[in-house]
C-alpha cells in the first residue's frame, strides 16, 4: 500500500558529527593501494574487513548525476576495498521488478517511490534494517521521512537525497532584457505566458520522455496543482485513494495543468508542437532557455545536473529558478518534494557496511560538497551546500509557511503511480480528454 503523505518537518541543520560506530580496523592495504590504517581512512574504519567484496546498486539516477554519486563514495571504496557496482537506468522502475521477481535482485537500490518500496516489502523481498541501523537512522533523519520507508511497522529504508520540485527555471538576463517580472501567483504566470506567446517565442519548454518512465514530469504538474487548488488533506486523500482518481477536484487540477501542457500557443519552445513533449528527453527539456528559444521550464532543483558544463546558475547567472507560484498565496506555500530511499535486497556483511555508510553524516557531506544535491540528513552541514538552486531549495524547505508533501505518484501503489498514471499522462498529452484519462487510472487502482 502507499504510505500516507505527512506534513513537513524542517530539516535540522547541524555541523558534521564524527562517526561513532566502533572500529574494526584491519591491517594491510585495500586493493586501491590506500592503507586502511592511515588518517585518511580513519572515518571508514567501521566498514573495513571486506576487501575485494562487490556490492551492486541499481537506481534511476543517470548521466552526470550518476557520475557525482560514484565520486561521492570513491574514498569509501578506496579505504575499505569494497567495490560498488552502480547501474543507473531509465527503465529502473520496470526492470527492478523484473530482476526482483526473477530472483536476481541488486544488493541495494535507491527507490524514489514509497509505493514501489511497499510493494517489495509486502512481498517479503526487502531486508529490514538492523537495530543499529535503525538507531542511526532515527538520529539522522526526521521521523516523517523515515515513515515513507516504514511498512507494517518495519523499517526498510532511509532517505538518500531530497529534492524540491516546485520550481520554474528561467533566464534572469532574458527576463531583465525583456522587462519580465518573476510571477508570484498562478494568474501572473499565465499573464506572463500570454505576453511571451504574443511574441515570436513559446513561453514554455517541456520534456516528458524518460524511457519506460516517460510521462513522469507531467505528474509533477498535476501534483503541484492539486496542492495549489485543494487543501493538503485532499491531496493526502488523493494519494491514498481516499477520493476517486477521477474526482472533480482532480479533474480541475489536470485541466489547469493542461492550460500550459496542452496549449499549442505555450509549448513546446525549441522543439515543436504539443506532441513533441512526449519525444523530448526530460534531461533536455529546459535547454532551450539557454538558447533563447523559450522562457520557462518547470522542473525540480536536480535539473541543475543536466545543464551543460560551465553553465552559471544563480540570480545573476545564465539560468536560475523561481518558486512555482501558488494559486492563492493567502492559503500558504505548497511545496512538492521527493527523494530516493536506500533499500537492501540482500544482507551480506559488505552490503550492510555500504548501507550503513550511506545513512551517515559523513556520506551526506561527501556528496553535498560535490554540488547539485541536498538531503534530509540532519548531519548535513549547510555550509557544504553551495549551488545556488540547492541553497534556494533549503530556504524553501525551512520556510515556516511551507506546506510540504511528498511526490504523490511516488506514494501511490506502483501499479498506478509508476504505471497507469505515467501512461495516462502520455495519452492525455497526445490528445485524450481529461475525464477518459482519469477514468482509466481510477479503474487501475488495486482493489
Describe the overall structure.
By secondary structure, the protein is of the alpha/beta class. It is built from 18 helices and twelve strands. Strands 1, 2, 3, 6, 11 and 12 form a six-stranded mixed beta sheet that branches. Strands 8-9-7-10 form a four-stranded mixed beta sheet. A hairpin with a 2-residue loop joins β4 and β5. α9 packs across α11. The radius of gyration is 22 Å and the shape is globular. The N and C termini lie close together (11 Å). The relative contact order is 0.19. The N terminus is likely disordered.
Q: Could you give the count of β-strands?
A: 12
Radius of gyration: 22 Å
User: What is the helix tally?
Assistant: 18
Name the structural class. Answer: alpha/beta
User: Segments where pLDDT lies below 50 for 5+ residues?
Assistant: 1-28
The proportion of residues forming helix, as a percent range, comes to: 25-40%
The biggest beta sheet is recorded as: 6 strands, mixed
Q: Tell me what portion of residues adopts beta-strand conformation.
A: 5-15%
Query: Globular, elongated, flat, extended or rod-shaped: what is the shape?
Result: globular
Q: What is the end-to-end distance?
A: 11 Å
- Estimate the mean pLDDT confidence: 91
Could you state the order of secondary-structure elements as H and E? EHHEHEHHHEEEEHHEHHHHEEEHHHEHHH
